[in-house]
Amino acid sequence: MNKCAHFLLACFICIGTTFPLIAQEQIHTKLGNTLSLNDNGTYVLQTVAKNTASNSPFEQPKPYLELDQAYRTKMSQLETYCLSRDTSMSIALHRYQTELNKLRNQKTGLPDQNGLTATLNAKIAELERQVELTNASYERLMPLCQEVKAFRIIDSEKKLTSSIDRLHQEHFGNSAGKEEVVVQKTFKTPQIDQRKPWEIEITNSSEELPSLLTYTPDRLKNYYKDNYLLEVFPKLINKNYLELKFVFHSKDVAKSYGTINKGAMLKIDFIHGQSIVLKASKSIDPSLEEYTGNTIYNAIYRIKTKDEYKKLKSTSLDNIGVMWTSGFELYPVYNIDYFRQAN
User: How would you class 192 by CB atoms within 10 Å of its CB: exposed for 0-12, middle for 13-18, buried for 19 or more?
Assistant: First the structure.
């Protein structure tokens, strides 16, 4: 199995805590991947479609095997982007369709009392619109992902690197930093939270809330076998601010990530291909929980308009990108309807 296959098969997708895999239903994505749905509402990427590239040891090495690290990183980001969007859109379509079926069944034979039929019709129309928008975005995604899949069978190094540069620029722009986080030469020492666990209010505990996403870089997955490097817990504040609590399960992470400066960008991508950009309202330094060793960043981003807030509350998420002082890093969102379901 080649390195990419190991990478893709390692993309274990879940919401919140990992549960035993008792699959009730499967989703087959447009890229040929298979997702298993569990009876507790979680889902997992079960199989990844095989690439068309041959693994025969008797063939001449493909140009992608000789790429330098910079191009391998760009290629990996594009592959991860396609896998993430393929997964999130398939999950969104499944949820929309499941809800549509429920509403249509409720409507069948229902007498028009107190405007119930009109209410159901409005909900059905909105879900049908979401399905249409998601399908349209899905179709726009396909050409990119088919081109990315073809990277491994391109027989010209010049053509391969040119394609990688073009697609990476189109979909990540100049703001997308390296996948490997740059280690800063200087950094601030995190403040240590010396309170004991029982001295901290329960309302501040991230364990009481579901996470928006979890993330572990490939190079650390063997170390974090039963956990994640990063969990992100969001909170909307008075329709004007989005608070993101970044919980790193490491006491040394500040050496690599640095801080979040005032005005730093937070890019939120939605599954329909739209995005919004929020800015940090103040500079954030990390704090260290003495009793856990976790490094915490409590970042607050300004929601400038009602349209931005409405989009957060009404549209399924795809990715979020965070600008650290060490660079930009993109994270796939697995709890894609977090804000739509939040009170």
Answer: exposed
Angstrom distance (rounded) from CA 303 to CA 281: 10
For residue 183, pLDDT over 90 is answered with no
Rg value, the chain, Cα: 22
What are 2-5's contacts with CB under 8 Å, separation 24+? 2/53, 2/55, 4/51, 4/79, 4/152, 5/48, 5/50, 5/51
Helix, strand, coil share (%) of the chain residues, nearest 5:
40, 20, 40
Strands (E), 284-338: 287-289, 295-302, 317-324, 327-332
Q: How far apart are CA 92 and CA 203, in angstroms?
A: 30
CB 323: neighbour CB atoms within 10 A?
A: 20
Q: Is-contact 37 106, C-beta < 8 A? A: no
Please, what's the largest Cα pairwise distance for the chain?
73
pLDDT class for 199, splitting at 50, 70, 90? very low
Residue whose C-alpha is closest to residue 267's, from 206, 326, 314, 308:
308
**The pLDDT of residue 278 is above 90:** yes
What residues contact residue 261 under an 8 Å CB cut-off, 6+ apart? Answer: 280, 283, 323, 325
